[in-house]
Amino acid sequence: MLEVKNLFVSYGRIQVITDFSFNVGAEAVGLFGPNGAGKTTLINSIIGLVKPRSGEILFEGESLLPYETHSIVRKGISVVPQDGELFPIMTVLENLKIGASYIKEARDKVNERLEFVFGIFPVLKERAYQLAGTMSGGQQRMLAVGRSLMAVPRLLILDEPSVGLQPTLVTELFEKLSMIKSEGVSMILSEQNVRQGLKVIDRGYVIENGTLAIESTADDLMHNEHVKRSYLGL
Ligand SMILES: Nc1ncnc2c1ncn2[C@@H]1O[C@H](COP(=O)(O)OP(=O)(O)O)[C@@H](O)[C@H]1O
Ligand SMILES: [Mg+2]
């Protein structure tokens, strides 16, 4: 579905991604690494916010590099950015509808899509008429994910969705991500919280200083000595 090949990305003279390759099929893939490793830069490259210096990014065989972000989103890639970007003085329902508004296919079945999102996040249905900005941090994160799902993505990219959430809420949110995965949505999960992330993903890539450190299945990563020492505190 998505294939990133030999990607190099620089900000000015500073190279932050060096020869990074990864791929995503019908599965959930983890992108794990410490702060500053290059996870957001990779995500921004996929959705056209950052232009790579060299390399290739293919979505269903077609290069995404010539396209602007809005065209990439229309192809079926939706991102939950690290800093949510909800509309705080709009209701939950209005925020969700905006998620579908950019894409004709999604606009045409907005009610069906709302039922899908409410099925995963019942709290968003209960609070449909509440202003988004008045909800708790955990609920706002759920709304950000729900809004991305309104666009009927085939690939959902989440940039560190657990940041700032209490552990119980992280567990709840990641259970929802597992539900979304089981609905057949492919996923890239960028995380520093590797322990929780491993529960959701099928395979993962560890990125350190902009280069690939380890690539393996969730099971193997869980038992990898480097992962245990550096990310699981074992
Ligand atoms: N707009 C930018 N200009 C210059 N350097 C940046 C910019 N954005 C990120 N960086 C640098 O690139 C590196 C990777 O950052 P980032 O992709 O945000 O990592 P992560 O998401 O894994 O924390 C870091 O060293 C960061 O300081
Ligand atoms: Mg980041």
From TrEMBL:
Chain ranges passing through the membrane? none
Molecular function per GO: ATP binding; ATP hydrolysis activity; branched-chain amino acid transmembrane transporter activity
InterPro entries per the UniProt record, alphabetical: AAA+_ATPase (IPR003593), ABC_transporter-like_ATP-bd (IPR003439), ABC_transporter-like_CS (IPR017871), BCAA_Transport_ATP-bd_LivF (IPR052156), P-loop_NTPase (IPR027417)
Residue stretches in coiled coil: none
ABC transporter domain residues: 2-234
The cross-references to Pfam families, in alphabetical order and at most eight, read: ABC_tran
| Top-level taxon of the source organism | Bacteria
Query: Quick check: keyword Zinc-finger in the entry?
Result: no
Record bears the keyword Phosphoprotein: no
Q: Which SMART domains match?
A: AAA
Similarity remark: Belongs to the ABC transporter superfamily.
Instruction: Please give the name of this protein.
Output: ABC-type branched-chain amino acid transport systems, ATPase component
Native species? Mesotoga prima MesG1.Ag.4.2
